[in-house]
Specification:
The complex is a heterodimer of chains A (about 150) and B (about 550). Chain A has about 150 residues and is α/β, with parallel strands linked by helices. Helices cover about 20% and strands about 25% of the residues of chain A. Chain A has four helices and eight strands; from the N terminus they run E-E-E-E-E-E-H-E-H-E-H-H. Chain A is globular. Chain B has 18 helices and 21 strands. The longest helix of chain B has 22 residues, at about 5-25. The chains are: A alpha/beta (about 150), B alpha+beta (about 550). At the A-B interface, helix 1, helix 2 and helix 4 of A face helix 1, helix 2, helix 5, helix 6 and helix 9 of B.
């Protein structure tokens, strides 16, 4: 079973990824971009190399697929959705999500992560914040460290 | 030089804890090898042919005596008593135990060092002029900007999982010693007539399988926009760089596919959104970093020229060392000294723990405790008083670091090659040694003049063979080690890529063929014409003709 981590906790998943316009029992649907309609209330699944679009912001949830965990395109896509298109809904990482790397995803604006079967949720939860602070700006913290903290020469 | 504040120290300390936990999960079997690989690479740990190799970051090639003593300690405690100066100004250890790497990192962190992003598909160590801050021909000291980029690129949330590795070099002098034309991004920093700091930005240069000279996509970038403009370039590359083929994944392939104009347009469109964001540098941000790079307290003194003149006459070897290894300093009475690691019989760039300790000692005694590493794999002492050069030379000579060959034939750039590296097609260190042995006469080397021989054991070009005046590339020919020779490469101002002379040679053949190349040069050169200029004037034909004429 995949594990959903949302807002730093293991959470019951009330969304289901579906291929097309399949009805699902009780759960809300996340559909691929080709099958998605802005006013449907459906979540939207994007590949990492998708071009962001303002109409995506009407989705309550956007899932970005990581074909492999080392593919950083989904990180840039997330940053663009959050900072350029001001997407405020849930931004979820799906696909080959690696438990060691959630701190990168988090700083790029993701707030939920669907860990595939076999990936350790325990590792994920223990490495959510390996660093107290970072040098550069991010989606979470738009000011670089030296703007926030008095750093001494 | 830059000193950590509490923020930097905390980050590096937390990196040690984080990496130790990752190593423990790997050793406990919780993290599969192929996944741990991506994590350890972002911390400089390769698994080589014989053992792991740990690459320690030396930010823009600058370190102090305490840090160098720690590297000597690591060589002794965790390795086999030596380290290797890399062509990207870092230091590598060839024999650490994987399980001990967290302990090594902990020792490094105590002296403000780390191995963050020294490998993997991320922004690597920023490199620069090894004479930065002291060179006579410098218009702007590039080190503050290197440090600003280092901080920005450290564990960047968006740019740590790029299509491929990413190398940024910065120069601020009229002679480009940082090879900015062959980097993913090359930055030239200068002061305008209005005393403003600006950058020219080159992209898409690089060596490897597809060598390319970078193209300038922006001139006169005002300093405050440095990071936002880099962010725009990196975002375009991260999104559009190829990920289907690692040999086509570098930014140079993307720039070529989009054309430099197309790439610039894309970057500019992205930058339009980022320009003026909170990552824009304010004057105080720059001043704070610049304060770390103020000149040391130089003594005012006579220039020491009189005593030097006498010493030169008495010691011909000292005279040669002054001529080749000592460069002009911006402060009168001081000189920049290059300590050559290129001793016949020692792999280029290899230095023992004893030598590292000695260099640290000299940095304290004859300088202000600072040391540089050059991309030519030598040590540099940036601030030596003219009247102490003789004493330093005597000690360097006794420690096998006094070779008077900087810029000459025997100052070979060489990757670790097939002796260590699992990627190599051929050995490179033994070939360097054979060449050094064959042409060991100083008079012959001096007569040949400035000459860069660069050797890489494979297409990845860690030995920068494309930009050697004579470049040598190890190739595999039906399981046998062969060497392809190219001529006319150059890494500095007006960079050029070498042209392949013809079919490759066996290792035994290489020294004789090189001798023939020298002969052609000596026959054709005009007075005071260096090898590279002569080659550019006469072209490949006379060389090719003679090298492939009836073998002896």
């Amino acid at each position: 079973m995949p594990t959903l981590i949302k807002h730093d906790k293991i959470t019951q998943d009330d969304w289901e990824l579906v291929e097309a316009e399949t009805p699902v029992n009780g759960a809300r649907r996340i559909v691929p971009v080709d099958a998605w309609l802005p006013e449907s209330g459906d979540g939207l699944l994007l590949p990492g190399d998708a071009e962001p679009d303002a109409r995506f912001c009407e989705a309550p949830l956007i899932a970005i697929n990581f074909a492999v965990f080392s593919d950083g395109r989904g990180l840039s896509l997330a940053v663009l959705l959050r900072t350029r298109f001001d997407f405020t809904g849930e931004l979820r990482a799906v696909g080959d999500v690696h438990p060691e790397l959630l701190y990168y995803l988090n700083r790029c604006g993701f707030d939920s992560y669907l860990l595939p079967d076999g990936r350790s949720a325990q590792t994920a939860l223990s490495t959510l914040a390996p660093y107290t602070d970072y040098y550069q700006a991010s989606v979470l913290e738009p000011n670089p460290s030296h703007r926030r903290i008095r750093r001494f020469a | 030089m830059y000193r950590y504040d509490a923020f930097d120290q905390k980050f590096v300390d937390e990196r040690v804890v984080h990496y130790r936990a990752q190593t423990e999960r790997y050793l406990a079997g919780e993290l599969p090898e192929d996944e741990f690989l991506q994590l350890r690479l972002r911390n400089g740990l390769y698994i080589q042919r014989l053992a792991p190799m740990l690459r320690v970051a030396v930010p823009y090639g600058t370190l102090d005596s305490r840090q160098l003593r720690t590297l000597a300690f690591i060589a002794r405690e965790y390795d086999r008593g030596y380290g290797h100066l890399s062509t990207r100004q870092n230091v590598q250890f060839n024999w650490p135990e994987l399980a001990e790497v967290p302990d090594i990192l902990q020792d490094l962190a105590k002296v403000q060092m780390h191995a963050i992003q020294t490998s993997g598909s991320c922004i690597r160590n920023i490199t620069t002029d090894q004479f930065a801050g002291v060179a006579e021909d410098e218009s702007v000291d590039p080190r503050p900007y290197c440090e600003i980029i280092r901080q920005w690129s450290t564990s960047h949330p968006e740019f740590d999982w790029l299509p491929r590795k990413f190398k940024i070099a910065v120069t601020g002098a009229s002679v480009d010693r940082a090879a900015v034309d062959v980097h993913d991004i090359g930055l030239v920093v200068y002061r305008t007539s209005d005393e403003e700091i600006e950058f020219d930005v080159k992209v898409g240069g690089g060596l490897g399988r597809t060598p390319v000279i970078g193209q300038t996509i922006r001139r006169g970038l005002p300093v405050q926009h440095l990071l936002t403009y880099l962010e725009a370039i990196l975002r375009v590359y991260n999104r559009y760089g190829r990920r289907d083929n690692k040999y086509k994944a570098r930014i140079k392939i993307l720039v070529r596919a989009m054309t430099a104009d197309g790439f610039r347009d894309k970057v500019d469109a992205e930058w339009a959104h980022l320009k003026g964001s909170p990552s824009t540098l304010e004057e105080q941000d720059i001043t704070r970093i610049e304060a770390h790079f103020q000149p040391p307290a130089y003594h005012s003194q006579p220039d020491g020229g009189d005593v030097l003149g006498k010493q030169r006459l008495e010691e011909p070897a000292f005279d040669r060392w002054l001529r080749h290894n000592v460069a002009a300093h911006k402060q009168s009475g001081y000189a920049i000294v290059t300590l050559s690691t290129k001793i016949t019989g020692v792999p280029p760039g290899d230095v023992s723990d004893v030598q590292m300790d000695a260099v640290a000692e000299w940095a304290d005694r004859y300088g202000f405790g600072e040391i540089r590493i050059s991309h030519e794999q030598n040590f540099v002492l940036p601030d030596v008083r003219l009247d102490e050069l003789f004493e330093l030379w005597q000690q360097a000579d006794a420690a096998q670091l006094g070779a008077h060959n900087v810029g000459l034939l025997s100052d070979i750039i060489c990757c670790p090659g097939g002796d260590y590296c699992s990627l190599a097609n051929a050995k490179s260190i033994p070939l360097a040694e054979t060449i050094q042995r064959k042409f060991d006469s100083y008079d012959y080397q001096h007569d040949l003049g400035p000459l860069d021989i660069n050797i890489s054991g494979c297409m990845n070009a860690c030995g920068h063979h494309h930009v050697g005046h004579i470049g040598i590339l190890g190739v595999d020919k039906k399981g046998a080690e062969f060497y392809q020779v190219s001529l006319g490469g150059h890494a500095g101002n007006g960079a050029s890529l070498g042209q392949i002379i013809g079919p490759s040679f066996s290792r035994e053949e290489v020294p004789d063929r090189i001798e023939t190349i020298f002969q052609v040069y000596l026959d054709h050169r005009h007075e005071n014409e260096a090898f590279l200029s002569c080659f550019r004037r006469v072209g490949m034909d006379p060389f090719k003709e003679r090298v492939y004429a009836n073998p002896d």
